[in-house]
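HUMAN: Would you supply a protein with C-alpha coordinates?

ASSISTANT:
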Amino acid sequence: MPQINVTIDGKNYRMACAEGEEDHLTGLATGLDARVTEMRRAFGEIGDMRLHVMAALMQADELQEAQTRLAALEKEAAALRAVVDAADATRAGEDARLAEGLNRCADRMERLAHTISAG
Protein backbone atom coordinates (compact mmCIF):
# COMPACT_ATOMS: atom_id res chain seq x y z
CA MET A 1 0.00 0.00 0.00
CA PRO A 2 1.55 3.31 -1.07
CA GLN A 3 2.27 6.03 1.47
CA ILE A 4 2.64 9.75 0.86
CA ASN A 5 3.59 12.77 2.93
CA VAL A 6 1.17 15.68 3.06
CA THR A 7 1.41 19.02 4.81
CA ILE A 8 -1.60 20.57 6.49
CA ASP A 9 -1.26 23.77 8.48
CA GLY A 10 2.52 23.48 8.46
CA LYS A 11 2.52 19.95 9.91
CA ASN A 12 3.64 16.89 7.97
CA TYR A 13 1.54 13.73 7.97
CA ARG A 14 2.38 10.34 6.49
CA MET A 15 -0.73 8.85 4.92
CA ALA A 16 -1.46 5.47 3.36
CA CYS A 17 -3.73 5.23 0.35
CA ALA A 18 -4.84 2.81 -2.34
CA GLU A 19 -2.61 2.23 -5.34
CA GLY A 20 -3.02 5.05 -7.86
CA GLU A 21 -4.73 7.39 -5.35
CA GLU A 22 -1.58 9.27 -4.37
CA ASP A 23 -2.28 12.37 -6.48
CA HIS A 24 -5.92 12.44 -5.40
CA LEU A 25 -5.02 12.30 -1.70
CA THR A 26 -2.33 14.95 -2.19
CA GLY A 27 -4.90 17.21 -3.86
CA LEU A 28 -7.37 16.71 -1.01
CA ALA A 29 -4.69 17.57 1.54
CA THR A 30 -3.70 20.66 -0.44
CA GLY A 31 -7.32 21.81 -0.49
CA LEU A 32 -7.70 21.27 3.26
CA ASP A 33 -4.42 23.08 3.91
CA ALA A 34 -5.63 26.04 1.83
CA ARG A 35 -8.93 26.11 3.75
CA VAL A 36 -7.17 26.00 7.14
CA THR A 37 -4.79 28.76 6.03
CA GLU A 38 -7.72 30.90 4.84
CA MET A 39 -9.60 30.33 8.08
CA ARG A 40 -6.52 31.12 10.19
CA ARG A 41 -6.26 34.47 8.38
CA ALA A 42 -9.96 35.14 8.98
CA PHE A 43 -10.20 34.01 12.63
CA GLY A 44 -6.66 34.36 13.92
CA GLU A 45 -5.20 31.97 16.45
CA ILE A 46 -8.14 29.99 17.80
CA GLY A 47 -6.34 26.70 18.33
CA ASP A 48 -5.25 24.12 15.82
CA MET A 49 -7.82 21.49 16.74
CA ARG A 50 -10.72 23.93 16.62
CA LEU A 51 -9.50 25.36 13.32
CA HIS A 52 -9.15 21.89 11.79
CA VAL A 53 -12.59 20.85 13.02
CA MET A 54 -14.13 24.03 11.59
CA ALA A 55 -12.44 23.40 8.23
CA ALA A 56 -13.64 19.78 8.21
CA LEU A 57 -17.19 20.88 9.07
CA MET A 58 -17.16 23.43 6.25
CA GLN A 59 -16.08 20.77 3.79
CA ALA A 60 -18.70 18.36 5.16
CA ASP A 61 -21.32 21.10 4.68
CA GLU A 62 -20.23 21.64 1.08
CA LEU A 63 -20.36 17.89 0.47
CA GLN A 64 -23.88 17.68 1.91
CA GLU A 65 -25.02 20.60 -0.27
CA ALA A 66 -23.52 18.92 -3.34
CA GLN A 67 -25.24 15.63 -2.47
CA THR A 68 -28.58 17.44 -2.02
CA ARG A 69 -28.17 19.20 -5.37
CA LEU A 70 -27.20 15.92 -7.03
CA ALA A 71 -30.29 14.19 -5.62
CA ALA A 72 -32.50 17.02 -6.88
CA LEU A 73 -30.88 16.88 -10.32
CA GLU A 74 -31.30 13.10 -10.46
CA LYS A 75 -34.98 13.50 -9.58
CA GLU A 76 -35.38 16.19 -12.25
CA ALA A 77 -33.59 14.01 -14.81
CA ALA A 78 -35.93 11.10 -14.00
CA ALA A 79 -38.96 13.37 -14.45
CA LEU A 80 -37.59 14.61 -17.77
CA ARG A 81 -36.95 11.03 -18.89
CA ALA A 82 -40.58 10.21 -18.06
CA VAL A 83 -41.75 13.19 -20.14
CA VAL A 84 -39.55 12.11 -23.05
CA ASP A 85 -40.78 8.51 -22.79
CA ALA A 86 -44.40 9.72 -22.80
CA ALA A 87 -43.71 11.96 -25.80
CA ASP A 88 -42.04 9.05 -27.61
CA ALA A 89 -45.06 6.84 -26.93
CA THR A 90 -47.42 9.57 -28.18
CA ARG A 91 -45.32 10.08 -31.30
CA ALA A 92 -45.23 6.34 -31.96
CA GLY A 93 -49.04 6.25 -31.78
CA GLU A 94 -49.31 9.24 -34.10
CA ASP A 95 -46.84 7.64 -36.53
CA ALA A 96 -48.94 4.46 -36.55
CA ARG A 97 -52.15 6.43 -37.23
CA LEU A 98 -50.41 8.40 -39.99
CA ALA A 99 -49.13 5.20 -41.60
CA GLU A 100 -52.61 3.70 -41.41
CA GLY A 101 -54.10 6.82 -43.04
CA LEU A 102 -51.48 6.75 -45.81
CA ASN A 103 -52.19 3.07 -46.45
CA ARG A 104 -55.95 3.77 -46.74
CA CYS A 105 -55.20 6.67 -49.09
CA ALA A 106 -52.95 4.46 -51.22
CA ASP A 107 -55.66 1.76 -51.35
CA ARG A 108 -58.25 4.32 -52.50
CA MET A 109 -55.85 5.65 -55.14
CA GLU A 110 -55.27 2.11 -56.41
CA ARG A 111 -59.01 1.46 -56.58
CA LEU A 112 -59.56 4.76 -58.41
CA ALA A 113 -56.74 3.99 -60.83
CA HIS A 114 -58.20 0.52 -61.41
CA THR A 115 -61.68 1.99 -61.92
CA ILE A 116 -60.36 4.60 -64.39
CA SER A 117 -58.32 2.07 -66.37
CA ALA A 118 -61.22 -0.41 -66.44
CA GLY A 119 -63.71 2.18 -67.62
